[in-house]
Amino acid sequence: xxxxxxxxxxxxxxxxxxxxxxxxxxxxxxxxxxxxxxxxxxxxxxxxxxxxxxxxxxxxxxxxxxxxxxxxxxxxxxxxxxxxxxxxxxxxxxxxxxxxxxxxxxxxxxxxxxxxxxxxxxxxxxxxxxxxxxxxxxxxxxxxxxxxxxxxxxxxxxxxxxxxxxxxxxxxxxxxxxxxxxxxxxxxxxxxxxxxxxxxxxxxxxxxxxxxxxxxxxxxxxxxxxxxxxxxxx
Amino acid sequence: xxxxxxxxxxxxxxxxxxxxxxxxxxxxxxxxxxxxxxxxxxxxxxxxxxxxxxxxxxxxxxxxxxxxxxxxxxxxxxxxxxxxxxxxxxxxxxxxxxxxxxxxxxxxxxxxxxxxxxxxxxxxxxxxxxxxxxxxxxxxxxxxxxxxxxxxxxxxxxxxxxxxxxxxxxxxxxxxxxxxxxxxxxxxxxxxxxxxxxxxxxxxxxxxxxxxxxxxxxxxxxxxxxxxxxxxxx
Amino acid sequence: xxxxxxxxxxxxxxxxxxxxxxxxxxxxxxxxxxxxxxxxxxxxxxxxxxxxxxxxxxxxxxxxxxxxxxxxxxxxxxxxxxxxxxxxxxxxxxxxxxxxxxxxxxxxxxxxxxxxxxxxxxxxxxxxxxxxxxxxxxxxxxxxxxxxxxxxxxxxxxxxxxxxxxxxxxxxxxxxxxxxxxxxxxxxxxxxxxxxxxxxxxxxxxxxxxxxxxxxxxxxxxxxxxxxxxxxxx
Amino acid sequence: xxxxxxxxxxxxxxxxxxxxxxxxxxxxxxxxxxxxxxxxxxxxxxxxxxxxxxxxxxxxxxxxxxxxxxxxxxxxxxxxxxxxxxxxxxxxxxxxxxxxxxxxxxxxxxxxxxxxxxxxxxxxxxxxxxxxxxxxxxxxxxxxxxxxxxxxxxxxxxxxxxxxxxxxxxxxxxxxxxxxxxxxxxxxxxxxxxxxxxxxxxxxxxxxxxxxxxxxxxxxxxxxxxxxxxxxxx
DNA sequence: GATGAATGAGGGTTCATTCAT
DNA sequence: TATGAATGAACCCTCATTCAT
Lengths: 234, 234, 234, 234
Known about the structure:
Helix content of chain A is 73%, strand content 0%. By secondary structure, chain A is mainly α. Chain A has 2 domains: 28-91, Homeodomain-like (Arc Repressor Mutant, subunit A), CATH 1.10.10; 99-228, Tetracycline Repressor, domain 2. The interface between A and B is large, with 56 and 56 residues. Chain C binds a DNA duplex (21 and 21 nucleotides) through helix 1, helix 2 and helix 4.
């Protein structure tokens, strides 16, 4: 998968580039094209979101300070309010902009016409590479953390991510059942069971990995073996 | 399971009882005072913990206000500091006192000599009744939320809960393997796979249940069917 | 006394640098604003220090409330923290900014080439006018009050004031000895003896003057008569 | 001079002794003689004052905590209020009980019929030994520190200490003038000039001695040489 | 648009004082 | 008399948000 989103650092670099684009030669005001201005605005938005990602995921919603977000983004504190109405809106935008893109890719993969096991392995790899080993992992953790206090956020996440992912997985499972690749039809009713180890991976990596490292890929393999009824000799 | 720990409401009742306990009989002065005082102190501690549970789980660590904890516990703000050195200590005590007891019960159950499936069902029921349908669910969510910012807490939780639970489950799985009740030995390496749907249950109930109710017991049944290779006809 | 004042902070310097970025021409908006802003900032700093002087000298370090300092300075409580990192820093800045300047003047006077007695009288007058009859008296009292609890402060005061004043007085005494204006060379070893009545003046004015007014100038005259061995007829 | 007051440590020991007087044999209530009880009460008062001396002189009035006073005195916090109506009363009692006794001795010494210089040297020695090298030094510093905030305290100190000391010194000076031991009659009008170096000693020892040790006895000698017009060869 | 100084409500914590035992 | 748990007002400091420039 090609990156759907620039990484934080890349975004920052981009912002810097944009900022220095007209070199030192102070262009007369108004000469700068509207398009360039819009682009600069977009770059700033990105920079702020990237900074917010770092701060929110490091400290949580309450403890994250907009001062730090601003400093990290290289803008003034007030500038944040030009792009986001308040701290909460920034948080929601953050979730939106970093998580949604991945879902599209997920849906795309589930539509590939291939044996379930192959698709599943691909999904697992996608999940590990794009989420577990990424800052996105922290965003998801943030949703679990703050979701109850921000029902809107939980709802958005349910609509945009959970339900879409569940549908995609459900379709995949149904096809697998029809083909006889799996036999337990209860999985169709509880696609959560397919995803559950992914959750474990996210939390474990964040909380316990330094105490007891977890090989996520191996765990997910074992998980699929289980689902497909593969028997390993003791 | 009989409670190892009094419930908040019970604590309050206990406090009242303690207050009225030595009715009329003239206990030697000092002894009476000391005993009653100690008991009252314990009751207060309980009350504060119960209140903290409500506030922390409703708002998270940072956003919870000790003012509210005090009010809810029916004590003055300063009183909290007689029992806990600061907000963080209160939080840790909360986790300790509400979670640890359950682990003991869990370990106990895993040592019962019965068919794996039966023990597993029992564990599931215990888990649902004592955690998922309880405030304890919120505590666990809190650990996931705040664990990264309080490494001590995560460590404590790992030592007290995770590693003990994993050992217990591992033992159970090993016995099941030996008896031929399960055939996938990878489960012994990843007991997390057994527990993963429990995690899903905790988070789902807290965040998405109002949008899309989840029948946790049914899901866990399906999970076990999967593990035991039970094939249901489509 | 015209005083040199330190700039608010490094942030200001940085701001100025940023402001000067658009070359030098036609300083439109921005630069003018920057100048006005900087000036306003300096004025605020002054206002806060003046307010702090009142509050600290009226109540002592611990009992002085920053709330009152803010109110008196006509700023919000939080504003104080834009200029001083905390209460202690404010206190130290106060001492620094009000006391240090006087020492320079003192040193200057001791270098005047004139008969000792004349210089001494001038110093006394300076001391009375600029310290005893001024709020500076209270600052010195504050140092005596809080010095033990803030060793840094005592050290600063020793370095900036005491040792410099002692050196200056010592030089003066040495010249006087050489010229035969005084004969007791022990004074050179204990310049404190010259200054001691000044201390008395400071404390007496603050604590006992309303009960028993003291004519400080007359006392200092008598002090010099003593040193110079002037004999008055009984 | 014989100690008029028990030293802190002695007081504590005395308290302990009093406490353990009836050994372990719980005497029936009421049997303990009223006299013993009064004695015990006095001992407690002493213990509290001694503890207060330590705490107040170490931290100042505001910053001293009654909790620490109680702990140091070996009594409960509430007990302090049985002996002193509030923190301020404790402070004033402290000053009274530790300073007043010394004044009596001072007055006594000034009435000795001996050459002024001899008496002066004796006074200096008394001052150094009983005040400068003692916790009393801190009490005097406390009066300077807190005097302005507690006018009652300053007034008490003026009446009990300052005015009595000044009278005594004045009498001494008058006799010295009459005998021709000194010639500067202005000293009679400003006895403060005699005492001033004592002040310097107190403050210097507390604030600057670690930076620049001061030989107080030598300084006072030099002071007297000055007053008596002793000329030392350069 | 962009800035960052200024605001001020709010929270954690302390501690003199009280009072039931 | 003695205790020490309990109180709650007070205070320092933070930080989201605003607004003049």
